[in-house]
Amino acid sequence: MSDFDVHLLVVDDDERIRTLLQKFLIRNGFLVTAARDAQHARRILTGLDFDMIILDVMMPGEDGLSLCRSLRETKTTPILLLTARGETDARIEGFEAGADDYLPKPFEPKELLLRINAVLRRMPETPAEDSMPKILHLGDIRYDLERGEMWQGQDIVRLTGTEMLLMKIFSAQPGNPISRAKLVEELGRDRGQAQERAVDVQITRLRRKIESDPKQPRYLQTVRGAGYMLAPD
Fold first, then answer.
1. Which regions of the chain are under pLDDT 50?
2. Distance CA 77, CA 55 (A)
């Protein structure tokens, strides 16, 4: 998929920033739609699908975190949060809301471009042709390795882009523990304790979707001193 095929939704209440972002991203080859607030974004999203959403956190009315949480109930579209709050706790809050990446303001436009491309590169691609699927069974959950899809009975389990990537990483090495530092590296994030905490948040979210009792995980286990391990049936 080339940049010219990538459609971005930019949501920011600041008209100047919104316009500058839209012009910058269009100059760099993206299709860009802009929304002035969460309500406007919701109306746009009822009729259009996007490859990525760039979402300001601090907005009047419904804020970006609330919109992000709401979108995660029905959409797996990658979400990058923009906010003036750069503290670790604020970043953790963003990842807990379902964001795939987080960029504090002010930022260099080039860094935003690099982060957009990094997130898009991490998104798993669905194979064009059907093939005999490889399936991992996690209780009543089925994970299709070929398609990167998770099912519970006849219902698909919606995963965020980061959760999809985590399942791809774990399913490639079932039964083998993977360290938090390695997961940070595989997710394309900067090294550091804050990012390892962010991985813990993503693991907690993923467990809620695959474990009957997330507090006593059977399938996505914590291996003391070694990291996390996927243990399918």
1. 1-3, 126-133
2. 12
